[in-house]
Amino acid sequence: MDAARTLSxxxxxxxxxxxxxxxxxxxxxxxxxxxxxxxxxxxxxTRHQRAALGALLGCGMVRPRVLLNLAVLDAIxxxxxxxxxxxxxxxxxxxxxxxxxxxxx
Length: 105
What we know:
Layout: H1 3-7, H2 19-31, E1 39-42, H3 47-57, E2 66-69, H4 70-79, H5 86-95
Antiparallel strand pairs: 1-2
Protein backbone atom coordinates (compact mmCIF):
# COMPACT_ATOMS: atom_id res chain seq x y z
CA MET A 1 0.00 0.00 0.00
CA ASP A 2 1.53 3.34 -0.99
CA ALA A 3 1.64 6.46 1.19
CA ALA A 4 -0.77 8.41 -1.03
CA ARG A 5 -3.46 5.77 -0.60
CA THR A 6 -2.91 5.62 3.16
CA LEU A 7 -3.39 9.38 3.45
CA SER A 8 -6.67 9.29 1.53
CA UNK A 9 -8.62 7.42 4.22
CA UNK A 10 -11.34 9.41 5.98
CA UNK A 11 -10.96 10.17 9.68
CA UNK A 12 -13.50 7.48 10.57
CA UNK A 13 -11.49 4.76 8.75
CA UNK A 14 -7.89 5.15 9.93
CA UNK A 15 -5.55 3.21 7.69
CA UNK A 16 -8.50 1.42 6.11
CA UNK A 17 -8.88 -0.79 9.19
CA UNK A 18 -12.69 -0.80 8.97
CA UNK A 19 -12.74 -2.42 5.53
CA UNK A 20 -13.61 -5.91 6.81
CA UNK A 21 -16.46 -4.62 8.98
CA UNK A 22 -17.79 -2.48 6.13
CA UNK A 23 -17.55 -5.38 3.65
CA UNK A 24 -19.72 -7.48 5.95
CA UNK A 25 -22.11 -4.57 6.53
CA UNK A 26 -22.32 -3.93 2.77
CA UNK A 27 -23.34 -7.53 2.10
CA UNK A 28 -26.18 -7.27 4.60
CA UNK A 29 -27.19 -3.83 3.34
CA UNK A 30 -27.41 -5.11 -0.22
CA UNK A 31 -29.50 -8.10 0.82
CA UNK A 32 -31.75 -5.75 2.87
CA UNK A 33 -32.49 -3.43 -0.05
CA UNK A 34 -29.95 -0.90 1.31
CA UNK A 35 -31.89 -0.50 4.58
CA UNK A 36 -29.70 -0.25 7.69
CA UNK A 37 -31.57 -2.96 9.58
CA UNK A 38 -30.48 -6.14 11.27
CA UNK A 39 -27.32 -7.51 12.74
CA UNK A 40 -24.54 -9.69 11.43
CA UNK A 41 -21.62 -11.49 13.06
CA UNK A 42 -18.08 -10.46 12.30
CA UNK A 43 -15.20 -12.85 12.92
CA UNK A 44 -11.51 -12.84 12.19
CA UNK A 45 -10.60 -9.22 12.88
CA THR A 46 -7.02 -8.29 13.68
CA ARG A 47 -6.18 -6.36 16.82
CA HIS A 48 -5.91 -3.15 14.75
CA GLN A 49 -9.29 -3.77 13.10
CA ARG A 50 -10.90 -4.34 16.52
CA ALA A 51 -9.31 -1.13 17.82
CA ALA A 52 -10.63 0.86 14.85
CA LEU A 53 -14.13 -0.59 15.24
CA GLY A 54 -14.02 0.05 18.98
CA ALA A 55 -12.99 3.66 18.37
CA LEU A 56 -15.87 4.08 15.92
CA LEU A 57 -18.35 2.60 18.39
CA GLY A 58 -16.84 4.31 21.42
CA CYS A 59 -16.02 1.11 23.29
CA GLY A 60 -13.25 -1.43 23.60
CA MET A 61 -13.25 -4.49 21.37
CA VAL A 62 -11.51 -7.47 22.90
CA ARG A 63 -13.57 -10.41 21.73
CA PRO A 64 -12.69 -12.05 18.43
CA ARG A 65 -16.35 -12.08 17.38
CA VAL A 66 -18.65 -9.09 17.38
CA LEU A 67 -22.22 -8.56 16.28
CA LEU A 68 -22.58 -5.57 13.95
CA ASN A 69 -25.83 -3.66 14.37
CA LEU A 70 -26.47 -1.81 11.12
CA ALA A 71 -28.86 0.75 12.65
CA VAL A 72 -26.23 1.72 15.24
CA LEU A 73 -23.51 2.03 12.61
CA ASP A 74 -25.83 4.07 10.39
CA ALA A 75 -26.61 6.47 13.24
CA ILE A 76 -22.91 6.91 14.05
CA UNK A 77 -22.01 7.77 10.46
CA UNK A 78 -24.94 10.19 10.16
CA UNK A 79 -24.59 11.92 13.52
CA UNK A 80 -20.91 11.77 14.46
CA UNK A 81 -19.40 12.00 10.97
CA UNK A 82 -22.16 13.94 9.16
CA UNK A 83 -22.47 11.44 6.31
CA UNK A 84 -25.91 12.16 4.83
CA UNK A 85 -25.99 8.67 3.32
CA UNK A 86 -25.03 7.06 6.63
CA UNK A 87 -23.74 3.50 6.55
CA UNK A 88 -24.41 3.09 2.82
CA UNK A 89 -22.21 6.11 2.06
CA UNK A 90 -19.49 4.87 4.41
CA UNK A 91 -19.47 1.43 2.78
CA UNK A 92 -19.36 2.90 -0.71
CA UNK A 93 -16.48 5.17 0.26
CA UNK A 94 -14.46 2.45 1.99
CA UNK A 95 -15.07 -0.19 -0.67
CA UNK A 96 -14.79 2.22 -3.61
CA UNK A 97 -17.95 0.91 -5.26
CA UNK A 98 -21.67 1.59 -5.34
CA UNK A 99 -23.85 -0.70 -3.26
CA UNK A 100 -26.64 -2.42 -5.20
CA UNK A 101 -29.99 -3.55 -3.88
CA UNK A 102 -30.45 -7.28 -4.11
CA UNK A 103 -33.14 -8.34 -6.55
CA UNK A 104 -34.46 -10.58 -3.77
CA UNK A 105 -34.95 -7.70 -1.27
